[in-house]
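FAQ
Q: What does a multi-component entry look like?
A: The components come first, one per line:
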Amino acid sequence: MGLLELARRRRSVRSFSSDPVEVHGILYAIEVALEAPSGANQQPWEFIIVSDPEIKGRIREACERAERDFYERVRGELAEWLSEKGLSWRKPFLTEAPHLIAVFAMMGRPYSVQSTWIAIGYLLLALEEVGLASLTYTPPNPREIGEILGAPSEAVLQTIIPVGKERGRKPKERRYSLEEKVHIDTWGGSLTQREPLPWTPS
Amino acid sequence: MGLLELARRRRSVRSFSSDPVEVHGILYAIEVALEAPSGANQQPWEFIIVSDPEIKGRIREACERAERDFYERVRGELAEWLSEKGLSWRKPFLTEAPHLIAVFAMMGRPYSVQSTWIAIGYLLLALEEVGLASLTYTPPNPREIGEILGAPSEAVLQTIIPVGKERGRKPKERRYSLEEKVHIDTWGGSLTQREPLPWTPS
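Then the predicted structure of the entire assembly, as tokens:
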């Protein structure tokens, strides 16, 4: 399968079945992520695979407490979007998914946050390749979650990725087209040389 | 080809041949990037494909001026690493590569920088898939480059990715192994359940 097909197939999943999932697929995906480029090749990332139900429970409890504060304060467009999508402070996927991948960036290295998110991009595609559903969940209280996981202070939690099998099936959110997001030479330069797409690599 | 093989094959390339490269492969890779997930599905990214030699020349000139200031100030481990790698303020790839992809994050959207770097991860893998060499170059003066390209102030340049065919062939930098970067359940929890890797998905 080409990358375009893989990337199109992947959707963010918030509802996981309780089916157990072997850790092998996750290790494969992290192995892909470890190949990502990084500032001065510092590879400023660390991964914790959390499968222990008790630890997942503590993470969920801490996240939901912080999310409740956030949802009480949020206003405007974002509040509308959240309500339309049926999102709330409840994060059941943090205990329902059989595994969580906590991804950390090591501070003080060049472009550590940016590099770590490149690796997260690799990771998400590789999880899809091995048939695992995922979500990039960003808790409002990354420091607190890092403490639960025993991370040192220079390791800052970037995301928690629940991983497992999807329960049910939701459609993918609409994406903008090339014409809407690509400029030629300068901002606003229109994409006119375009030939029929998608162009599949040989 | 599986993603692990693709990710392993990709190396950051700083030396490009002057061979022209069709823009189709780049459009394909951006189409893959457009499928990335983002905070509240805001897709807070924009791409400018720069092929005009005059504009590439202005970008190179502005970057090299800022790089010279940076290299005069840099000290310590990073300075040693740069010197070991033979890196300097000179950035010939900015004019030698047939195309540059300038990637912008739109400020004021939730997690716009993080989301954009996920998309950059997708983009780098897709460029490799279509046989195009690339580098994630982060100029010290992103605002100035944005102005050259006519970007509005809410669009902040994240990286310039030169794209083309590699001149010569350099080896890939060493990557850490799974055992060095993966923890189980909490920080320091060792990866003992591991079975032989790489595990290739069916």
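Q: Is there any commentary attached?
A: Sometimes. For this entry: The radius of gyration of chain B is 19 Å.
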